[in-house]
């Protein structure tokens, strides 16, 4: 109910739908969030993820309480990282692959990491329009993971969002990157399986490919092998197989295979899933999966420490007061970068040595 004042008289008028909706949004408790996520309520799930991504201190406190409550319900999904150069067909592949997994009885969550959103500080929702069929499937959920203008924001929100999605019953979580910069290694550190998509017929197939990406890959898939691309895809597959053959596998229990697939027609996707399932089974039986996840939790901890320390330092009043002058001195060359860093760290309360 709301009170309205009309010519000096106070009258009671019933709330409209918009007011009721706002009231409901303002009154979600921790129990409401937990119940909503565990029951698969998509509206409350979306709000829970937004809570996790929020930089509001009150929201962060509630989000941590929420994650503690949800933690026992997570950790059971296949976590698959997917990267590839722009234009390799990631969105088309994910839509077709996700649909195949749903047909096999799985619930699929897609988390899209898009650093280009750093221009506005938010997320770009293009993946939902490029994966329209999958986005409209009730057994799938597509969520952009905002970079918040830096890599640290991606690592914080994506890991926590994965936990929320797993608690909501999604047993396959696909984490997509744009395939540029350092994101490949970050996503590999938060998933169980790292899939690298490659293009056929892109000139020298090994040119410009970071060795680190190949070393991290659990499987390389040459996409767009349909039609006239078949011969070029065969050549590319052989190139990558040769490259992997001379590298030491990251695990003694797994040698990364190289497959030809088509995200457009579905060629090879069933075999791809079989290989991913084999990897999950082998790593689970050997105990390596749990060891990897333990290591990832430690990396997550240090990533959050770095993120929080950087935020705290940037907002420290002494640092903020002196930063313009120190920045000007560094730009002019009056002060060296190492000395400027030492000065700022001392203002923050850290008296440490620094190798220049």
UniProtKB/TrEMBL annotation:
GO molecular function terms attached to this record: GTP binding; GTPase activity
Family matches, as InterPro entries: GTPase_ArgK (IPR005129), P-loop_NTPase (IPR027417)
> Which Gene Ontology CC terms are recorded?
cytoplasm
Concerning its family, UniProt says:
Belongs to the SIMIBI class G3E GTPase family. ArgK/MeaB subfamily.
Protein name, per record: Methylmalonyl Co-A mutase-associated GTPase MeaB
- What's the source species for this entry? Telmatospirillum siberiense
